[in-house]
Amino acid sequence: MTEVGKGTAPMNAAVSSRWRRMVNLAASAAVAMLALVGCKADVISYDLPSESARYTFQAETNGVKTAWEYTSDRPAKPDTPTSQPCIADVVVKETGLCRPEPLIFLRYDLGLGLDNTAKASGLHPITVTGYYQDRLSTPPTVTDLRVEASFDGGKTWKSAGTRAESKNTFTARIEHPKRDKAPEGVALRITATDSAGNNVKQTIPQAYRLR
Length: 211
Hints:
With 211 residues, the protein is mostly beta strands. It has two domains: 2-100, no CATH class; 105-210, Macroglobulin (MG2) domain (Immunoglobulin-like, Sandwich). Helix content is 5%, strand content 45%. It has helices at 29-34, 87-91, and strands at 2-3, 20-23, 44-47, 53-61, 64-72, 99-100, 105-109, 117-118, 122-131, 142-150, 158-166, 169-176, 186-194, 199-210. A hairpin with a 2-residue loop joins strand 11 (158-166) and strand 12. The protein is elongated.
């Protein structure tokens, strides 16, 4: 059985199988990534085939939309430390190998003031870090990060230059317009891809405002 994280969202390709994977993906995932909102966690189970397949997992929390695409199959060996047992073993009481799913989560340092705003008219740096669930002992490496910003409520998007700073951590420089050109604040759309071909796309409709 394979474990994901916390939250509620639809998953595609959910078909009958004797191989059960517990999905317990945090709806607060979008928040852990931004630390702006919170949501209680639910435990959801899906029956998935044991063969390797590509899956899409989607979640929305307070308008923040996150979509993961990843490859999953039946584990060849268990990948959960004894100090942190598999949630599926505890909740479903099914025997079998268990490991977390390789979902990329995002953590942000938006460089904002105490009022959660950033200065208008100029380049503004932000830092984005990709990470995985703690139980995944050998996670992939985030190899590519794309940052887009919108100042008109998501009608149009402008790419920001990004640079790798350290493992799984990137900086982006967003060119802010004048404050009156972004009355709805700054929206962000982040896409990250790892060395295993998994990816995540997160859209934050109002990440912060300009001052």
